Amino acid sequence: MYGYGQGTDSAEFRRERFAMYLSLGVGVLLLALKLGAYWLTYSAAIFSDAAESVIHVVAVSFAVFSLHLSYRPPNSRFHYGYEKIAFFSAGVEGGLISLAAITIFVVAARRFLAGESIENLGPGMALITAASLLTGFLGLYLIRLGKRQHSLVLEANGRHVATDSVTSFGVVAGLVLVKLTGWQPLDPLVAFAVASQILFSGGRMMRRSLEGLMDRVDPEADAAIRRVLPELASELDLRFHELRFRNMGRGVHLEMHLLFPFAMPLGKAHRKATELERRLSAALPFPVLLTTHLESLEDHDELHPGEAIALSVTQPSEDSEQTLTTLNTAAVGHSPSPQGTHQP
């Protein structure tokens, strides 16, 4: 079944684990650089950057735990495995980022009111610039690998690191202006700007986490299935309805009802359903665990009055997310062909 319970001995897990350990190690190094820069300058802006790095180290530690848990196989208590921990992990990271932003606001306000000055700008800026470049490369690596692996844990961490890089460059720009103008209040003002950006990023991550846990419709996954399924159904001369799916973390669980002539042998209907599953798995850009329910076409309206039957997926209205395809949450990655289940 595509990625459910692949286990910690899979190549996918080893790649993701290496990336997360790399992120953790680099995070500790970055924290040391930024604390050194703060010790040299006592800059509120640099403090804001260092505080964000503290959160990064804590968040990555939790993400490593989430990654290990997400690869555990399903069991009698968790029939669909543990993949949804990825959404919870993203929410925890977003909450920690928001907490860091509030801390930065408090410290910057105190510095602004006290009128404290900063020192040793040259060495401090050099350390922060090095940290900015390092976080930029790490963030791009994590985002690219996360998209390729279709791992929300990796992608969320990569976006966090990329945000940290942009923040650090903003701090450097602010310190350059302080050095050129000599206007000391600019330092806490830069810290305010950094905190605002961090708070926005944290809120966005928490929102994405909540949407994933609540199975919110995802437009990209919606479009992918609209593009692929009608063509496959037409080629196999199949009708379907009651199509929906939910995101499980790296893969999606998709369900639909297939309709066959009453006189068609069950074995033949099963083979056609299996062929649809095989082709759909190969055609979609993310792995799918497909469950099909087989029904008779002739007496469908009598047994299920009011339910639409489709050869294609209808487009949603602008005012409603309820469509023939109830598509839920984010698109995720590609993996070996899944095995589907049939319910006659």
Can you walk through the features of this model?
By secondary structure, the chain is of the alpha/beta class. The protein contains nine helices and five strands. The protein has two domains: 11-213, Alpha-lytic protease prodomain-like (Up-down Bundle), CATH 1.20.1510; 219-343, Alpha-Beta Plaits (2-Layer Sandwich), CATH 3.30.70. It is elongated, with a radius of gyration of 25 Å. Helix 5 runs antiparallel to helix 6 (186-213).
Which term fits the overall shape? Answer: elongated
CATH hierarchy: architecture of the largest domain: Up-down Bundle
Report the order of strands and helices.
HHHHHHHEEHEHEE
Taking Cα atoms only, what radius of gyration do you get, to the nearest Å? 25 Å
Distance between the termini: 20 Å
Helix content: 55-70%
CATH superfamily of the largest domain: Cation efflux protein transmembrane domain
Mean pLDDT, rounded to whole units? 80
Percentage of residues in strands:
5-15%
- Tally of contiguous helical segments: 9
| Number of domain units | 2
SSE-based structural type: alpha/beta
Poorly predicted regions are 311-340
- CATH T-level fold name of the largest domain: Alpha-lytic protease prodomain-like
Summarize, please.
The chain is 62% helix and 10% strand.
Task: Fill in the keyword field for this structure.
alpha/beta, Alpha-lytic protease prodomain-like, Alpha-Beta Plaits, 5-stranded mixed beta sheet, elongated
